[in-house]
Amino acid sequence: MLPFDDFPLYATLHELCYLQGAASEWSADRIMRTIPEYLHSDPDSDGPIYFFGEMCFKAMYNDYMELRDLKDTAEILAYIDDWPDLYNSEQLAKNEVPVYSATFVDDMYVSFDLARETATKIKGCKNFITNVLYHDGLSKKSDEVVKQLFALRDDVLD
Questions:
Q1: Which residues contact 126 (CB under 8 A, 6 or more apart)?
Q2: Which of 87, 130, 152, 156 could bridge 126 with an S-S bond, Cβ 3.0-4.6 Å?
Q3: Between 158 and 81, whose confidence is greater?
């Protein structure tokens, strides 16, 4: 299990950052219960072990000491159902502000096709696409990603 020592709000805000007009109602927990392979994965058997990606489950607020103080807050936030729209598609299509983005082809958490489709909806968005870096590319190789984004800004090709 990964610690939340440095980023306790990550767990609390993770599902919320995708919501618009609906409550999460602990989405990861609800969806997991519908997938039998995850419910019956036994590390002591010869069968496959199924892992989770970036899910944050309700039980983590009991399991992780650094999340315990956020448990009541997380419970309240999980049932708020009037989140505003994440973005305004019409406004993004009229964008006048320079936008430079990075898309990782083999990102295990973000669909490459969806990321590309989203970037095309932002007027003037220039996209750095790579299959060398992954989801954590910005934090693990920030110098490389930022260099590529500045190259897009400066319209410089290698």
A1: 98, 99, 100, 101, 152, 153
A2: 152
A3: 81
